[in-house]
Write a structure and sequence with these properties.
Elements: E1 3-5, H1 9-20, E2 25-28, E3 33-38, H2 42-52, E4 61-63, H3 67-73, H4 78-87, E5 92-97, H5 106-109, E6 114-118, H6 123-132, E7 136-137, H7 152-159, E8 165-167, E9 179-182, E10 187-190, H8 196-203, E11 230-232, E12 242-246, E13 255-256, H9 263-284, E14 288-291, H10 300-311
Helix pairs in contact: 1-6
The protein binds threonylcarbamoyladenylate and magnesium ion.
Length: 314
């Protein structure tokens, strides 16, 4: 049975003790719930891959409570420190040269000489990381290829009984995963919870690429975030066989990502809306989900990235 832990000191102490034993503990971050394991313990990291059914060549993000802890596992340039000062704690992941002496498992980096590092802002994530006292590898706490979890109930639904515990603390505020940036030269590997515009204000125009980004042509996208029903994007109206997820002024939509047309709010609601639409489709015997267009500005960039993957061929 997966233990449900309360977000207070006792629950966090229990979570930290389980992590120290090499067990897996899911916990809320401001982006999505993560599936945590000791990043220095290869058996624990292997268990993360096994619980998710994730291909093991896809590297993981190491989570730490602050810049000082991050500097113990990765090498920071002046630019990396500036970005950390501006965006940490928060939904930005930096890909930096790994400190080999830090003892991070090869399974976290998938053998690369770089490490993805993140300092989450969520108080429960902060509390768990401080109670544990070491780096925690944590992908999103969902079966590989499925919709990321933004509540503890989503985690239990997907991974119940495959993990030791989940710390429960309500829905995630940001709702999409962190923005991933590599440096020297700066490159956007994944749009996410920090708006690309805010990074570009500091760094100038950001090329996209690297192994966390996929080409935007639909046929080349890796299927991910996939609901059971097929997904159609840019839907200004619904077809009879569809559940329609609206955005802004979309009268008659079954659900709405943001009635006010705010991409930040759309990000917050995205994954729960995909789950709800999937349930509605199953109840009504429909096989498709249509999604209204969302602008590519602010967090809309991350929303559209996730939607394109949800719609990609499986
Ligand atoms: O918001 C988030 O980032 C969430 C929460 C739990 O913190 N975590 C998350 O992890 O989204 P995950 O494992 O689902 O995504 C990690 C991404 C993958 O796309 C992986 O390819 C990329 O980070 N990545 C990890 N290490 C990398 C590296 N050294 N170089 C390039 N990409 C890397
Ligand atoms: Mg994920």
């Amino acid at each position: 049975m997966t233990e449900i832990l309360a977000p207070g000191p006792e629950g966090l102490a229990r979570g930290a003790a389980l992590l120290a034993e090499g067990r897996l503990v899911a916990f809320p971050t401001e982006t999505v719930y993560g599936l945590g394991g000791d990043a220095r313990n290869s058996a624990a990291v292997a268990a993360i891959y096994a619980a998710k059914g994730r291909p093991s060549f896809n590297p993981l993000i190491a989570h730490v409570p602050d810049l000082a802890a991050a500097e113990r596992i990765a090498v920071f340039s002046d630019r990396a420190r500036d970005l950390a000062a501006r965006f940490w704690p928060g939904p930005l992941t930096l890909v930096l040269p790994l400190r080999p002496e830090a003892g991070i498992s090869d399974l976290v980096t998938a053998g690369l000489d770089t490490l993805a590092v993140r300092v989450p802002a969520h108080p429960v994530a902060q509390g768990l990381l401080r109670a544990f006292g070491g780096p925690v590898a944590a992908p999103s706490a969902n079966p590989s290829g499925r919709i990321s979890p933004t509540t503890a109930a989503h985690v239990i639904e997907g991974l119940g009984n495959r993990i030791a515990a989940v710390v429960e603390d309500g829905p995630c505020q940001v709702g999409v995963e962190s923005t991933i940036l590599s440096l020297d030269p700066p490159m956007l590997l994944r749009p996410g919870g920090v708006a690309v515009e805010d990074l570009e204000a500091l760094l100038g125009p950001l090329p996209t690429g690297g192994n966390a980004a996929k080409p935007n042509a639909p046929g080349q996208l890796t299927s991910h975030y996939a609901p059971g029903a097929a997904v159609r994007l840019g839907a200004a109206t619904r077809q009879p066989d569809e559940i329609w997820i609206g955005f802004g002024d979309t009268p008659g939509a079954d659900l709405n990502l943001s009635p006010a047309g705010d991409p930040t709010e759309a990000a917050q609601h995205l994954f729960a809306a995909l789950r709800a639409a999937d349930r509605m489709a199953a109840e009504r015997g429909l096989s498709r989900i249509a999604v209204a267009p969302v602008p590519e500005t602010g967090l809309g960039r991350a929303v559209n990235d996730r939607l394109r993957r949800a719609a990609a061929p499986r």
